[in-house]
Amino acid sequence: MLCLGIDSGTTSTRTLVLDIESGKIVAFAQKTYKTIADLPHGHAEQAPQTWIEAVEATIRKCLAKIDHRQREVVAVGVSAQQHGLVALDAKNQPVRAAKLWCDTSTAAESEKLNRALGGVEEMIERTGNAMVPGYTGPKLLWLKENEPQNFRRIRTILLPHDYINFWLTGERQMEYGDASGTGLMDVRTRTWHKPLLEFIDKNLAAKFPPLRPSTRPAGLLRTAHRDEWKLGRDVLVSAGGGDNMLGALGTGNIEPGMVTLSLGTSGTIYAYAGEPIVDPKGEIATFCDSTEHWLLLACTMNVAFAIDQIMSLFQWNVPTLEAKVAGIPVGARGLLFLPYLQGERLPNLPRASGVLHGLNLKNTKAPEIARAVVEGVTMGLAYGMKRMVDLGIVPTELRVTGGGSKSAVWRQIVADVFGYPTVALKVAEGAALGAAIQAAWTYCQVKGKPIALDKLVHDVVKIDKKSRAEPRKENQSFYQELRGRQIDLTRKLATSGYL
User: Fold this and answer.
1) pLDDT tens digits along 241-267
2) Are residues 334 and 368 in the same domain?
3) Confidence bin at 95 (pLDDT 50/70/90)
4) Can you tell me the distance from the alpha carbon of 285 to that of 298, in angstroms, rounded to the nearest whole number?
5) Which of 132, 159, 226, 435 could cross-link to 79 by cystine, CB 3.0-4.6 Å?
6) At what angle do helices 318-326 and 304-314 cross, to 10 degrees?
7) Catalytic residues
8) In this structure, are 74 and 108 located in the same domain?
9) Are 236 and 274 in the same domain?
10) What pLDDT, in 10s, does the model give residues 317-345?
């Protein structure tokens, strides 16, 4: 029995084929792409067709690699970047490009939505989260205020993974996990917050598809796709979800104590919660997960994006970057990086920019700058971990996923900065693996042969024991002090209007 797991991200789509009986990945394919170029600062958009083309291309490549086993494919699961706005017209065509999670042009609209409920504290009290620019809600208000002609054309509102599911099945629906990332839900009750929807537009609720549990399938694969790809009958498509929700499945983060750190284009750190835990400061998001529980999540916007900028600037490849960073002592000889190249979500500074602080004659070379960047983005995420601990999360192990998890140098920096044992997984593509796991789990449920999710995850998700990094005591206290400096410098520059 084979299942496809698809992860549609900001810079690439990754598809894998999971053999459920053996727990092995038997095929993998990836296709890269970019966001739309030359948009004003703060705007980040992609054409939804870009995702579809990448999904189709990677599925074809994977199926070619398992040519003799294509008809063993029984289910498909889709993970995708959260928060993106896909607005469809009466002909089910996008009315415009999708505004993405990293689009901060909606800062004013997020402030308006917070004020609509009486301020940030009241917003948190009533929905479980503060409204921030990255969420889908402010994008809808932005569209109504800035492109009213396009807003009037909207008949259906989808999120990125919902749109891919629609292309696969012809069915329009939305599941609790990704829907909670719109900012328009009460995450405790898993229902839309009607006053928020009506503040944006009195007819907005009618434009959302049915809201369903993440355990229910999205539908069956369209006959045209099934025939074209030479698959068997009745291939199931699971509900899918946001990349963090399915990344939790793909890293085994389905019980207390496990914490996942995703080092992708953005950086996310998330932990399982059996009950909704709401942050009164609004710094940690509380989302619904893909198992009918909850996910505490901290997100920073500049991780692999910042690393990629460094490699492009100095014309390095990944091995060169690792070697250069490893050759520089902790603290980058006094250089400190504030990683806010495209604004930031934690802390909530959508209009901020990056800062290199502490330049002197000993740290102006490329290796010191690279070390400072890696340390800076890692410390930004560590603030989110500290806040989760303050809220009651008790980590036992930090599981690292995403492209950055493949770097031994970065994993050691993570262990030193966070102060917890850090380990990578044998499959670095946690969200794609989680999508395949969900597809298998859903298929077995539908067929009347249920498998316990914890057993399925235990059988499939494997730790790479050789990757384990223990925190080094001599570096922990240094990084604690450096994190304090980063927070203090950020606060002083932001409050003075210089960030």
Assistant:
1) 999 999 999 999 999 988 999 998 789
2) yes
3) very high
4) 6
5) 435
6) 90
7) 243
8) yes
9) no
10) 999 999 999 999 999 999 999 999 988 98
Residues 180 and 52 in one domain: yes
Classify residue 437: in a domain, yes or no: no
Q: How far, rounded to the nearest angstrom, does the alpha carbon of residue 34 sit from its chain's CA centroid?
A: 17
Question: Do residues 237 and 281 share a domain?
Answer: no
Q: Yes or no: say if 275 and 209 are a contact pair by the CB < 8 Å rule.
A: no
pLDDT-derived band at 459 (thresholds 50, 70, 90) equals very high
- The count of structural domains within the chain is 2
Residue 204's closest CA among 194, 214, 217, 189?
Answer: 194
**pLDDT tens across 218-232, in order?**
999 999 999 999 999
Task: Please indicate, yes or no, if residue 133 is contained in any of the structural domains.
Answer: yes
H, E, C per residue of the chain: CEEEEEEECCCEEEEEEEECCCCEEEEEEEEECCCCCCCCCCCCEECHHHHHHHHHHHHHHHHHHCHHHHHHEEEEEEEECCCCEEEECCCCCECCCEECCCCCCCHHHHHHHHHHCCCHHHHHHHHCCCCCCCCHHHHHHHHHHHCHHHHHHCCEEECHHHHHHHHHHCCCCEEHHHHHHHCCEECCCCEECHHHHHHHCCCHHHHCCCEECCCCCCEECCHHHHHHCCCCCCCEECCCEEHHHHHHHHCCCCCCCEEEEEECCCEEEEEEECCCCCCCCCCCEEEECCCCCEEEEEEECCCHHHHHHHHHHHCCCHHHHHHHHHCCCCCHHHCEEECCECEECCCCECCCCCEEECCCCCCCCHHHHHHHHHHHHHHHHHHHHHHHHHCCCCCCEEEEECHHHHCHHHHHHHHHHHCCCEEEECCCCHHHHHHHHHHHHHHHHHCCCCCCHHHHHHHHCCECHHHCECCCHHHHHHHHHHHHHHHHHHHHHHHCCCC
139 and 188 in a single domain? The answer is yes
Do 79 and 204 fall within a single domain?
yes
- Residue ranges making up the domain that contains 18: 2-243
